[in-house]
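Quick one, tokens below:
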């Protein structure tokens, strides 16, 4: 059974930092890319970042470039999203996704 378990959300002031983790199981981790999406209240789901576990290549949404960093620990089957210089517009529920499966979502609230 494929599982993606997220942790690390919370409430933070603007300019602060948070780190998410997404622990994956039930599939060959190295064969897939893992992505982070987010959905803000009243807005559509949008892609934030993704990493290929086969070659380590990464992509980022323009608005988070330079502030967010995605990394992968293949030995732990875990992907991390380090978020710095957070802004109120980063407030959303964040989801990790891989192999056509989604995590449960974790809330990030950035206060101004």
């Amino acid at each position: 059974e494929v599982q993606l378990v997220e942790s690390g959300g919370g409430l933070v002031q603007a300019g602060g930092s948070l780190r998410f983790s997404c622990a994956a199981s039930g599939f060959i981790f190295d064969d897939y890319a893992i992505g982070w999406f987010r959905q803000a209240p009243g807005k559509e789901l949008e892609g934030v970042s993704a990493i290929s576990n086969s070659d380590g290549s990464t992509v980022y949404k323009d608005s988070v470039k330079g502030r967010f960093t995605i990394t992968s620990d293949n030995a732990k089957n875990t992907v991390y999203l380090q978020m710095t210089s957070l802004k109120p517009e980063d407030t959303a529920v964040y989801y990790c996704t891989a192999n056509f499966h989604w995590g449960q979502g974790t809330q990030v609230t950035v206060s101004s």
